[in-house]
Design a protein that fits this description.
The chain is α+β, with helices and mostly antiparallel strands. The protein has 3 helices and 11 strands.
Amino acid sequence: MFFQLSRAGHYRNGIGSVPALMPAAALVGVALLALVGCSSEPPEIQTRAIDFEIGAKANDDNALAVDLVLVFDLPLVGQVSELTATTWFRTRDQVLLANPTGLEVRSFEVIPGQPGTHVEISGRSRDAVAAFLFAGYASPGAHRARIDGMPEVLVRLGGKDFAVTAPSS
């Protein structure tokens, strides 16, 4: 369709006239809609605090490695969620080298019967899009949990596996 600007500041297309600013306003509106659609960022994790309870016979009374893995890159969430703890601990260094800004790892070693650890999630960590716990049990199993949906997390490390709950008030 052909538009011609008249002296009165209207575009003419043979059918009628439109104020000169209308096409520009429409273009700005379309651009804003496109930006709003593209600017939606993944949600941040809800988790703010994690408490660990360590059973007297956790990991059959052996020290236990625990990793809190905070994921910042959405494509990594699916990859990390498919890992077992055994695979995570075996490949952790390579995964971190391949994704230096996509992951943050906090590692702990817990001893059965010792007091539990309290972990605060703050700073850049709160911008993560997912949070996982991996526990290096000697027994077979995934020993992995996704915890980012709970503001406060209680992790109970038992003899052969761990459980994640919201702490009782």
